[in-house]
Amino acid sequence: MDSAAPFLTRADGTAAGQGLGLVTGLVDAVDWLYDHWYLLALAIAVCWGGGEMVVRRLAAKASAERMALELVSTRHFDPSLEEIFRRGVQLARASTAMPWWAPRRAKAVQIRLRADGSTPLRYRIEGPAGGERLLSITPFGPDVTVNRARPIVDEPRTHTVRAEFILRGKLTSPLREVPLTPDPLQPLIDAVADLRAELGDLAEIRLDIQRAPKWALRARRLQLMGAARRSERREAQRAARWLRQDASGIEDSLGWQLQQLLTDKPGTGSGRRLVMPTVPRRVEPAEALGKLAEDDHLVRVQLLVMCASNTEGRAQARLAQLQAAFDVFGGRSRWAMRGWRLGPWRIGADHWPTKRGFERRWNLGHCQPPRANWVRLEELTGLLKPPTVHCRLPVLAGDLPTFEFGDPELLLQGIYRGPDGRERLVATYAEETLFEVGVGKAGGGKTERALAQAIGWAHAGGGLVFVDPHRDSWPRALPFLAHDHLMPRIALIDLNGLGPNPRVSSWNPLGMHHGQAAHEVVEAIADAYASALAWDDATAPRALTILTAALTVLVAINEAACQAGRPEDQATIFHVRALLTDAGFRKAALAAVAGELDEETRAWWQSVFPTLPPDAFAVVLNPIARLAANPVTRAFLGQPVGVYNIRAAMDSKMIVWVCPGGNGPTDRLLTALLARDLLRAARSRRDTPEAKRVPFRPYFDELITLTGAAPETIAAMFEDLRKYRCHIHGMTQLLSRLPTPVRLSVVQNASTLATMAHRPRHEVSSSDLRQRLAALRDGQDPRSVEPGLRAVHPRRGGPGPP
């Protein structure tokens, strides 16, 4: 034992020396690093820069394999919250469909909302190529079409502004729950509704969605729980401090001292009160973490916005509008523009040092969201789908084609003046313009626009009938229709009787020489009477029965005369009086068609008619007597063989102008007869295959006047005539003044194109529209026509003949 002691002593000394040398070396190393700290910082910077360069190269390589899809929704698209939520789950899942080596910043799916003036809003999805199959199958059904999209190449604009939005407010608070009605995209679409492609306007919103990394989420939760516990301890300490101060104040008060002197219990005032400190309240994770408490459907987002224009100031104004639109989603947490404001200046994504990073993320599609941008999929429902049925999409000027004179596929609509002052004639496609209603103040240009449209349609080879109770439209349209190739197609029905020797056309409503069906003719005239005189089965059943029976006999007589080759022997509507009051004429008429009438009709004339008192016929004969008293209407309706045939006009593309004489009771009855005959003729086209039906356009000026005579008839036209390729155009000053059946048919018909006639002082008048149409017809530049010029015949140098 004694011999080993020196050895142990030497070993202990050696170990102690080595430990002391190690400590001395560490101290020297720390001292050297302290003196040469810049070398350590440089090494760290080199390592970080090299790692960042590698990560960027890998992210750029992964981003080069991205694909793009464009989603186009129909106007009936109305998704449910569950469908939108499932789409969000698909997007979050597809963001991870990347190679294992891809950096996290490349693992994202991007929603692009783009407007450049060509479309109201383009909705695109860009993401990893491996997620294309998942993203192509949407839960929205057939109302959304998914198309493979091509890359978008933008031309450089003169002025560009950029912005990145971050979530401000309480980190754990959600965004406002925006309902689906109206569409949450409506504020964004309204903000870009007035973009002008010719000015280079562009606005684009990019929302990147990235699945939340677990380690970042745990670190954030630990940070939030620690902050909540510290806050609770501070509140407990503050409460205890205030409690002690309150207790000390009470014991030192005069009242408390007097109470102690007057008390009967000895020793009660010998000591001070014992104050129990407030215990910190237990922090509940659900309350402290808020929307970060659960892992499910939690994502990180990056919201980038860029606006551009070739006109100074428009891009900045557009960005301000989009910033206001994002306020709709704000609640306790809101979208705010990232950056710092120094007085009138704002340092953000447009300035150093963040501009370069913004451009890299914008061009490569990298997602590097701020630390605060944690959201749940439920908060993004408004941005996870294309525009729905509850979104009002603007009609852009680029959507309307430029009118070309003589093109039968286009229908003139008016003059469009762009922001740069240039004007052009815009049109709609004739095949898509099914019904039209022009509403506006008196003198606002409703009739003038309809005239220009009708003239353009006539020159393109289309057929039409223009019904104008005031006749003012015919003199204005006459110079533009005075062409040799149009004259054989023009027919004028003018019942105003102007001039010393007025010329009137002829029409026999009972005529059968055009091959009409007998029961349709009887029904049309009886319904016109009932509409103009407010008859129905409850108020005037006997009058309807008498009139129908008389019309049946007269139509049978006319049919027999036509079959015998004597159409000039046909009866007219004025023979109703003779049939009801002249026994000899009635006996001869019934005998002539005894074999043509059915047994029930013959029995009525034999058994029921003799029992009717003479005054029962007055209600039927009085309107006919008023028609006969007017020489114009008598001449128009009193010819056995009339030339007016609206069915033939439809099939042969005629240009028919009808000018009723006024708005009295007699004129309303005549208007009702014409309107009902138009409805009958259009419905009779069922005998023609749909592909062979020639398009025909009736124009009704002063709908209030016309519908007063035949409300149910014109309402039925708006409801039924589209099937027979008859497209109604109406003009009125007030929709509320229209009869209820007509107003409901016009408003509820989804095929109606409604236009508001409004002419500010600086706009070109509607009469100038016709002048420009004439210039376009003659091969001239329509912009060279000065206001107030009169149209002239292209060859004769003056107004053409009627």
What is the helix fraction of residues, given as a range?
A: 40-55%
Calculate the terminal CA-CA distance, rounded to whole Å: 146 Å
Question: Which class do the helix and strand fractions yield?
Answer: alpha/beta
What is the CA-atom radius of gyration, in angstroms?
A: 43 Å
What would the average pLDDT be, to the nearest integer?
Answer: 84
Description:
The protein has 802 residues and is an alpha/beta fold. Helices cover 41% and strands 16% of the residues. The strands form four sheets. Strands 1, 2, 3, 4, 5, 6, 7, 8 and 11 form a nine-stranded antiparallel sheet that branches. The chain has a seven-stranded parallel sheet with strand order 16-17-15-18-19-14-20, sandwiched between helices. A hairpin with a 2-residue loop joins strand 9 and strand 10. Helix 15 (575-581) crosses helix 16 (583-592) and helix 22 (703-709) packs across helix 23. The longest helix is centred in the first third of the chain and has 38 residues, at 214-251.
